[in-house]
Design brief:
- A hairpin with a 4-residue loop joins strand 8 (about 170-180) and strand 9.
- This protein starts with 6 loop residues before the first strand and ends in a 5-residue tail after the last strand.
- By secondary structure, it is α/β, with parallel strands linked by helices.
- The protein contains seven helices and twelve strands.
- The protein folds into two domains: about 5-10 and about 155-210, N-terminal domain of TfIIb, CATH 2.20.25; about 35-150 and about 215-250, Rossmann fold (3-Layer(aba) Sandwich), CATH 3.40.50.
- Helix 1 (about 15-25) crosses helix 4 (about 80-90).
- The chain has a seven-stranded mixed sheet with strand order 4-3-2-5-6-12-11, sandwiched between helices.
Amino acid sequence: MAKDGEIQVVTDAYTTMSYYYDVFANANARAQTSPRLDDFIRLVGVADRVLDVGSGTGTAALLLAERGCEVHCAEPSPAMRAIHLAKLAARPDLAGRVTVLAVEHPFPAPVDVALCAGVLQCLTAAERTAMFERVAAALRPGGVFALDMVSDDPAPDVPATLVAEAAVGRCGFEMWLSVRPVDDRTALQRFEYRTVLDGRLLGREQVSREVHRHPRAEVTEELAGLGFDAGPAPRNEASPGDLLVVTLGRHRR
């Protein structure tokens, strides 16, 4: 058993991250991706059929279901899916409109909109290509695909920094983040989650993962090869930050 304040290095990053995900999301107005989830939500029409790739604990899916959308969630982490299903169990009014499956299961087709929020950095270039092909096969002609973390910026070199705080009852939670570049395409992220009770540091859980850079020109060219158009698109107002919105051509290549 770990002593108070002792670091525990966790090998299953997403099991630990899912434990704290909604605590910090709620404390920071759902700011778990860049750009915010609201920038994705506004692209979806009422009653659209939506594919949410890397749906996490279901924050976006529940918001979309409340608007009348049918949402198919593809999430690789069993821990994230478990939390999402628990939320749906508490919302029987929405449960009929949300499907939660592992990402390797088939995507439904056709869908009107595909969302990929906060996911791309977790994929290698080869994994990105495979995901794009699956999304293209699922979207209807003229359908919208929105994804973030498309950026030409090099990976930052960030020392351990407090990036989020939250409180639940007498417990306080802190999320610390450091980033170390490995090469021009890859960086190592380290998260440390600290739990404090009545001012006493109880625990420190440390998880690491590789993250990957996906340059905008490279991503846009790859999507064009699958029949996507990155030009002016329906619902494509000024896209903030690293958000990319494309439409699937009516005559795919």
